[in-house]
Amino acid sequence: MSTSSPIVFYDIATCPPVGKTCFSPNPWKTRLALNFKGLPYSTTWVPLPDIAKVRSSLKVPPCRKFADGSDFFTLPIVEDPATDSSVGDSFDIAVYLQNIYPTSGAGDLFPPQTLDYVFTHESPFLVPLSECRESQFSEYAKFNMNIDAAFTAHVQLAVQGFQFDPATAETVKAEFVRRAGVPSITRWEDFAIVGEAREKMKLSLRNMLGNLATLFLRDTSGPFLLGTTASYADLIVGAWLRMMRATLPGSEWAEVTSWHAGLFGRLHDALEVYAEVK
């Protein structure tokens, strides 16, 4: 099946120019998947304070909830005029693209493979993460959930590098603080991690990536999990690497790309072909 009218992809706006500063990992998963499939699309940039309104207007229900049961409104969403469909979860979007456009672009997003990576963390996450719902691609669904948990456990390293639109910065920072469920006197700046605590978290990140690297080393022809063949699992990791590249200090990003014989730097660079912002 081919699409004559471009798919509309809704991403989270950051500071101008938004196409140069986008860093949200779940929308990045969708962008990489759309480009992998070679499908025509356009991006609609939505400021974070407007996401709930936009998602509701598109009649796309929220796919996650906070611990208190309230809805978590987020992006991405894609609207596909070819099928009159709207899909509002990054994993569900990838499954949709594979099912509707199975041979488009670079081909199969979900080639069979074993993805037995598990991340465990002692503390509960306050922000809702991807869920492992029943899926025709269950290996990938479990991998997506575990990768999200693994990187989210280290996202505090990135918060100082978040880029905000000055017009909405204070509103967005207050929303992030509210989502974290911390005392109301907490400021966004209080999330910054420095000194010994930062070095400890960087070591934890390095160790986490080391455990993940064992999957990539099963096929040393690389840089992908299946050697020279990219899949949605690579895009999941690549989306988080895009986020880290955009938000970590340059010297720390250079460290990340050098760890484990440069494996994740090579993965990031190999996915550049699917990283065009349209």
Indicate the topology.
Layout: E1 7-13, H1 18-21, H2 25-36, E2 41-47, H3 51-57, E3 64-65, E4 71-72, E5 77-80, E6 85-87, H4 90-100, H5 138-152, H6 169-180, H7 195-216, H8 232-247, H9 250-270
Parallel strand pairs: 1-2
Antiparallel strand pairs: 1-5, 3-4, 5-6
Helix pairs in contact: 2-4, 2-8, 5-8, 7-9, 8-9
What does this protein look like?
This is GST N-terminal domain-containing protein. With 278 residues, the protein is α+β, with helices and mostly antiparallel strands. The chain has one domain (7-107, 116-274): Glutaredoxin (3-Layer(aba) Sandwich). Helices cover 43% and strands 9% of the residues. The chain has helices at residues 18-21, 25-36, 51-57, 90-100, 138-152, 169-180, 195-216, 232-247, 250-270, and strands at residues 7-13, 41-47, 64-65, 71-72, 77-80, 85-87. The strands form 2 sheets. A 4-stranded mixed beta sheet has the order 2-1-5-6, with helices on both faces. A two-stranded antiparallel sheet has the order 3-4. Strand 5 (77-80) and strand 6 (85-87) form a beta hairpin. Helix 7 runs parallel beside helix 9. The longest helix is centred in the last third of the chain and has 22 residues, at 195-216. The relative contact order is 0.15.
